[in-house]
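#struct-pred

JT: dropping the chains for the assembly here, can someone run the whole complex?
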Amino acid sequence: MILTHLDPLASSIFSSMAIASLLLAFVMLGSRWLKNYLYAFAAESWVIAALSATVGFFGHYPELYLVAFLTALFRGLFLPFLLWRIIQRLHVAHEIHEILQPSSTLVGGALCVVFSLAVGYRLGQSLGLSTTVAVLALTVMLSMKLIGFLMLAVRHEALSQILGLLLLENGIFLGAQILVPGMPLLIEIVVLFDLLIVVACFGVLVQYLLAHAGTTSSLQLKRLVG
Amino acid sequence: MSVRDIVLQICQVLAVLGLAPLLQGFILQFEERVQLAQGPGIFQPYRDLWKLFRKQIVVPETASWIYWLAPFVAFAAMLTVPILIPVLTDFPLPLSDMGDILGGGLILTLGSFMIVLAGLDSGSAYGGIGSSRAVMVTILAEPTLILVFVGITLLAKSMLPFVVNHLLVASQAVYWSPAHLFLIAAFFTLLITETDRLPIHSSTHIEVYMIDEARILEYSGPLLALLKWASMMKQFILYTIFSNVLLLPWGLSREGTAIGVVGSAAALLGKFLLVAAAVVVVDTAQSRLRFYRYQEVLAASFVFAILAIVGTQLS
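RK: done, full complex below.
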């Protein structure tokens, strides 16, 4: 297990990258423009790709280099490109009616982080992972999941919701990279293709919504139409 | 205290004095080139200073003694700070124990304070606007500065820039720790703010946007040259602190030999090219924002500083 004997340099780099991706999650949470949202997601994916490469380097898992490459390619380039094309077609630049102001959402995100820190600390103790990096990885993983849920809850534009879902998945992936780096390669590839299918289905759904409902905002989709 | 160390200390001050216009010229030229213009050449600030020093002084009738005092205090303050920080050597030279990071910050702020007073002194509308805006920005930048100092102190358990430099060179783990990276981010924002290159500023003389330039509109001739030189030196000093203490602590003279000092001066210019390139990207790629959005940038740097302090408590 890599976490039990980690040299200080690796622990510094891991915690820097984990905190950087948490910060990018906050950028996503606080941004009004869908494009900034997308750029933050792409940047976060690159950070996570770099993280898996570093875990592979320090923990001597050569297959993680492949995972890092695939992460950068799919999550960092291909998924953002597909979503960017959907944004171009949608003519929606930002959330028009906000359920919750971005600044209040940021406070909500901060509360999520505090909650996850408490949970991560407990969880780390009960699993015997009391090192700083383990607690930090648990905290970042849980808080990115909660922030993803928060986004799904307070954003109503379809594209924000899919980005919330992807962020949630990024959080799980990040935690898995640090906590159980020896995860089989096949699972990671399956997850990546799952994401691809999610985004492809989403593209079809957006086309359908535009054609039949004329909007992609979930606020407008309350009424049954026959 | 040997003669060599005293000579080195004088060299540090002279390096700041002589190379500051070059840095300014490089940044201005690079900005022009990024915008596909020809640019005045990197030696233009030297020519400007030379021209201003040979011009006549015109003093407003309303000016008091503060008007005369401010340029000299600002210039002297900028000559004092290089004594306290590692410009060329990574070991303390004579008199560099006069003050720690807080002391250096105090002297830097004293220079700006005198210029703010001078802007108010002559009673012109533009000077007043410039001073009030500069103070508004400073009020929000100051807490970040203090928190960055606190973060550095917690990281290195010392307030001396030399100790921070040695720690970062010695330990890769500290260099890549989140605390240090967030300090870099926070200080970079401060650097852009203090050198008047936030994307809310305008460097031209006609727009109502100007901040730092508006404070010195009433000056002319050698006094203006002193003020401009002081502001270039302030920029150089902040770049030095940023690159020699925080970002790139390598490449400083260890022994204090002549060849080592020349090498570290060359390395310093190389580091500045990197930092200046980043600053130019921020300054040109970002479109100008409304003036009242300056607080968002400073709030972000404040958050970075807080995170850095949290990060020092992690390990």
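JT: nice. Chain B has one domain: 3-312. Chain B touches chain A at residues 171-178, 181-182, 307, 311, 314-315 (CB under 8 Å).
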